[in-house]
Amino acid sequence: MSKTRKFRKLGFTDAEKVVFEKKGDDVVGQIERIQTVITSYGELSILLLDVDGVQKSMAISSGLSFHPWDELVGKYVHIIYQGEEKNPKTGRLFKAFDVYVEDAGDDEDISF
Questions:
Q1: pTM over cut 0.85
Q2: Fold category of 16-104 in CATH
Q3: H, E, C per residue of 62-90
């Protein structure tokens, strides 16, 4: 007698993707971890967030790459999409964001 097996598609995460479409779109959540995946364009870092008990993922694009994400694991962040901006040096468009971290008080120092 053969056993019926159930399968699910494997990917880097089953998390729901955060999509920023218009200026002001935002996400608030606790950073769970950063995961690196290999794409046809090279390595891409993915931010995994807990948003009200739901795991969500978002790419750490060029507009977000300069933040100290490793230092922020476990912290609550508020990420707000500011629209596309042009890099004055390269002329390329990139998605710009404002990033806020929950105020840690006087006992911690996180550089932005």
A1: no
A2: OB fold (Dihydrolipoamide Acetyltransferase, E2P) (2.40.50)
A3: CCCCCCCHHHHCCCEEEEEEEEEEECCCC
